[in-house]
Specification:
Structural class: alpha+beta
Helix content: 25-40%
Strand content: 25-35%
Bound molecules: coenzyme A
Number of strands: 5
Largest sheet: 5 strands, mixed
Radius of gyration: 15 Å
CATH topology: Aminopeptidase
Order of helices and strands: EHHEEEHEH
CATH class: Alpha Beta
CATH superfamily: Gcn5-related N-acetyltransferase (GNAT)
Length: 140
């Protein structure tokens, strides 16, 4: 199994990503637009030529001395490959990228009821700094 940040993806690999991902559909064009922007991160776990785990992140510039943060926007491991340390490795890779790019903070939003996600994030070192945070949406 290989974990790496990808900057391009073949048609075959794109189709191998579509096991679920919350019902997401990917195509070559939309994937290329995403990957061409170097402020977007796609870290994948690959086995036997197939993508079995993904992590998507985004670089967020700041205008104070912290310079930037990275939003860990989504992480998903193929149901047949969970509890084998893949989620942990995807996050460790994003932490390496943040270190190399001198970004001091990665943040992620989840649900307390998502036990797997909560355990994964805390076991990889994330801490909840504000317990009353809430996510609100504007639908445009
Ligand atoms: C959350 C998710 C990415 C974890 O991926 P994973 O590859 O199974 O994670 P790991 O194997 O690295 O697990 C690391 C630790 O997280 C915890 N964990 C993972 N899955 C768990 C579960 N179902 N229940 C309880 N703890 C869990 C464990 O502490 C685990 O360590 P252990 O196996 O040594 O006990 C995976 O369950 C998934 O894709 N879920 C659906 C998508 C999702 O909810 N994403 C997060 C949205 S915010």
């Amino acid at each position: 199994m290989k974990i790496e940040r990808v900057i391009e993806l073949s048609k075959e690999k794109i189709s191998s990503m579509m096991w679920n991902f919350g019902g997401s559909t990917f195509d070559e064009k939309s994937t290329k637009v995403f990957l061409d922007d170097k402020k977007n991160y796609l870290v994948v776990a690959e086995e036997g030529g197939k993508i079995i785990g993904i992590l998507r992140g985004h670089y967020f510039p700041r205008f104070d001395i912290k310079k930037a943060s990275i939003l860990l926007y989504e992480i998903d491991v193929h149901p047949e490959h969970r509890r084998k340390g893949i989620g942990t490795k995807l996050i460790e890779k994003l932490k390496d990228i943040a270190y190399e790019e001198k970004v001091p903070e990665i943040w992620v939003i989840t649900n307390k009821s998502n036990t797997a996600a909560m355990q994964l994030y805390t076991s990889t070192g994330a801490i909840a700094t504000h317990d009353d945070d809430i996510v609100l949406e504007y639908h445009i």
